[in-house]
Amino acid sequence: MTGLLAANLLYFAIGAALLPVLRIARTTGELLERLALAYPVGVAATGVLAAHLALIEVPLGLVELVLLAALTGFLGYRRLGSDPDTRGLTPIARTEPIWSRLIGGAALLVALVLLLHAWRTFEVRPLLEWDGWAIWGTKARALYEFGGATGPVFTSEAYLPLQHPLLLPALEATDYRAMGVFDPTLVHVQLALLAVGFLLGFVGLLRDRVPAFVLGPSALALLAAEPVLKQLSTNLADVPLALFVALGLVGVGRWLAFGERWPLVAGALFLGAGALTKSEGTFFALAALLALLPFARARLRELGAAALAVGLIVLPWRLFVALHGLPLVEYRFRNAVSPSYLSDHSNRVAPAARGLADEIFTLDWGLLVALFALAVALAVVARRYEVAGFALLWSALSFLGLLLIYWISVIPIDLALVWSADRTVVTLVVGAAALAPLLAGAAATSGAARGRR
Amino acid sequence: MIRAGLVACAVVAALSAALALPDTWSWLSEQHREAAELTPLDRYQASGFNNRLPVGGFDFFRANVRRGDRVFVWARAGTTVRGVDFPTGARTFARYYLLPATIVEQPQDATVVVGVGRDPAELGLTYKSVLRDDGFVVARVRDPA
Questions:
Q1: Contact criterion met (CB < 8 Å) for B28 and A437
Q2: Rounded CA gap, A363 and A196, in Å?
Q3: Least confident interval from A88-97, A98-107, A195-204
Q4: Which terminus of chain A is more solvent-facing, meaning fewer CB atoms within 10 Å of its CB: N or C?
């Protein structure tokens, strides 16, 4: 356990150093104000690096993490201005009434207690679910044993499916090296820490833009939803994907709503990490960038830079897939643009839409879907059309994208839905719900502005 | 209006948490209760037992294959709990459980053939050594390079 915790402290240190390097924080004041982002930024960035290094057989362990922390720390220190100014704090953060802070603080405290409870369980719960060991556990163990991804486990058809990118297994392999042993149970603490990272990142991205009495309960509602921690415990990559994509959406959404550049940088990093966590992460990230396009036409250069950053994060893995000719056995993308194929398989659309809708509109999620709908309506009433439009368009594109994947899948539709629909909707539901407090915050800012007028 | 909307968002979020939290908490507690009593060995083997795979046989295989071995899994017919056929289930478990040895698809590529309810002699290969244990067989073709 000590090694695992040491690795995670180093992820935090690397993230704290990256905040000034990436210009997420420019001054000491901003660094302190946004320090909650340090851990999720560190996990995302180290995970991306570990996944890339695995492609060239360079393993990351504690020594490498210490060196990385020292290097990024040096760069971060040089980049950081000495201005202790906290001008970044917005009127909401400064004028937040005490009752609002109390409600928000209490909800966040309950969320933290829930995550500690999850930690206690994850620490002893073995690797049980099929895909958890058959796909993700095998990849993580192989990266630990071999130090990289060029062997048969990652390239031979005896180890299908091969198309999944490597961020999560690379992170777990780094943890195994830090622990000095392959312990497929204890490593699940890393999954609980990813959820802690999500909470920190979520609060760090929104706390000065969203009233605390909305932000705290929203964060708690997201983490309390049964599928989140239940699926996270299985060691499948769907929830880690959802958490990264949700943070990415909140980041790019804040950029759209409030015009600051730093959340776009954080958002692009998280979307990139999502794209490197699971194949469909690229598609969710692309949906986010496309959904921004109609509403950010005056800021296309910034958006283009973010898209380029996401593309560069995914590029090494896509090159690896192309160079090794790794097959995608469940569907062929070219069928998605083949009218004859789509027509021949159109009988899959209705059951797929029903199956996905059943998984989205279940009370297992609590009232997250209602929360999203209410927040969109509030943003529209407050005339924050750009952020409401972005949220709706991303949700629609994501749903249609999932539908298309089930449409072109070669697996019988009933079986495909039973096997995966409850998992594939996680990013859609969590991502949309994560946008709810941002939408509310945008509406509140608009309301405050009108009130002042 | 906006203020009322914000309050409504907070209320819906709080209700959502209140609806979901008890079940999530109970599930975590139940999982902890069940798992806390397991020994480290139980936890290591749980992925196989949970899918009704013959873990004891795979422990026998694990003790007799080594890093660099290329393993062909020769398994009896049948099904696993997940609905996949038993040979596929056994091969999939071997991929995970026998690391750092790796799995091959063709027997002629193997340094070791492991038999689960089937005799590797059926494959017509020449073996350097053959170990048997209650229906499980480790037949070595050659040492790993």
A1: no
A2: 24
A3: A88-97
A4: C
Chain A closest-CA separation from residue B130 CA (Å): 24
Specify which residues B116 forms β-bridges with: B75, B136
User: Which chain B residues have a beta carbon less than 8 Å from that of A229?
Assistant: 24, 27-28
> What DSSP designation does B76 have?
-
Residue A155: burial class (beta carbons within 10 Å; 0-12, 13-18, 19+): middle
Domain check: are B102 and B128 in the same one? yes
Nearest CB among A132, A217, A381 relative to B10 is that of A217
Is residue B59 in a domain? yes
What local confidence, expressed as pLDDT, does residue A453 receive?
Answer: 36
Q: A82 pLDDT exceeds 70?
A: no
Indicate whether B111 and B57 sit together in one domain: yes
Structure tokens at A52: 């890339």
pLDDT band at A330 (very low <50, low <70, confident <90, very high): confident
- Whether residues B77 and B27 fall in one domain: no
Nearest CB neighbour to A368, from listed B7, B16, B42? B16
Is residue A404 domain-resident? no
Quick check: is A222 in a domain? Answer: yes
Same domain, B27 and B67: no
CA dist., res. A437 & res. B16, Å (int): 14
Residue pair B112/B124 in contact by the 8 Å Cβ criterion: no
**Integer Cα distance of A118 and A138 in angstroms:** 23
Is B134 contained in some domain? yes
Q: Phi first, then psi: what are they for A207, rounded to 5°?
A: -65, -25
Q: Which one-letter amino acid corresponds to residue A277?
A: T
CA distance A380 to chain B (A): 10
Give me the domain span that covers residue B96: 50-140
Kindly provide the ipTM of the predicted complex, given to two decimals. Answer: 0.94
H/E run at residue B102: strand B102-103
Number of independent structural domains in chain A: 1
Using 50, 70 and 90 to split pLDDT, how confident is the model at B120? very high
- At A172, the amino acid letter reads E
* Pair (B66, B127) in one structural domain: yes
- CA torsion angle B20 B23 B27 B33 (round to 10): 130
Q: Which residue has the higher pLDDT, B81 or A318?
A: A318
Query: DSSP character for B85?
Result: B
Number of independent structural domains in chain B: 2
User: Do B9 and B76 sit in the same domain of this protein?
Assistant: no
Q: Are A366 and B20 a contacting pair at CB < 8 A?
A: yes
**Measured between CB atoms, which of A103, A126, A141 is closest to B46?**
A126
**Full residue range of the structural domain in which residue A216 is found:** 2-82+101-326
Burial of residue A395 (number of CB atoms within 10 Å: 0-12, 13-18, 19+): buried
* pLDDT above 90 for A355: yes
Nearest to A131 by CA among A49, A43, A231: A231
Token duo for residue A17 = 């150093």
Q: Is A114's CB within 8 Å of B6's CB?
A: no
pLDDT at A141 over 70: yes
How many angstroms from the chain centroid is the CA of residue A167? 12
pTM of full prediction above 0.90: yes
